[in-house]
Amino acid sequence: MNKRVFKLFFVWQDESEEQWLSSMAEKGWIFKKYMLFYYIFEKKSPANYLYKLDYRTNYSNFKSYQALFEEAGWKYVTSYLGWHYFRGKKAEVFTEELYSDQDSLIGKYRRVLQTLLTVLLAILVLNIPPLFYVPKHIQWYLLLLPVLSIILFVLAIILIQKKIKRVSETKML
Question: Where do transmembrane segments lie in this chain (predicted)?
Fold first, then answer.
């Protein structure tokens, strides 16, 4: 039996998403696929799985990328817009983190930051002119979406930068 769950996580909430997926596995709902705010689960026996996310949009060989994590006990589950989901049994993974060193984890968040900055730049280029010159036939509330998008992306950038700082100040294995 499959179950589809609507759930929203923001880009800076990757750790919360990982914990939620792990808690669903403990209830017997094993994560299979993600599609724009929808998580697809399959009902099985409760399992002690850890879920981890990686963000990577450019890689030369996806098979070797997967193999790198599989060697450490992580099984590839699915991908969506550069986010890659991995699952591992707590007793079988080499480490409970996908990355065992700070530089790799910081690299993940820098890749996220680079994407956020690129998208923010595109939003600004496309939406700044209408903010300064609003034709009379356009209602003011139509400008809310670009303004809210800009605020959301700026917030995401700030919070990802804080994550990078926190990780760089934390000792890892």
Answer: 112-132, 138-160
E strand spans, the chain: 2-6, 29-35, 38-43, 49-55, 75-80, 83-89
Q: Taking the CA of residue 162 as centre, how many other CA atoms within 13 Å lie in the half-sphere pointing to its CB? A: 9
Asked if 163 and 12 touch (Cβ cutoff 8 Å), the reply is: yes
Output 127-133 pairs: Cβ under 8 A, ≥24 positions apart: none
The burial class, CB within 10 Å (0-12 / 13-18 / 19+), for 88 is buried
126-140 tens-digit pLDDT: 877 766 666 666 666
- 0.85 cut: is pTM over it? yes
What pLDDT, on the 0 to 100 scale, is given for residue 123? 86
Q: What is the DSSP string of 7-26?
A: ----GGGHHHHHHHHHHHHH
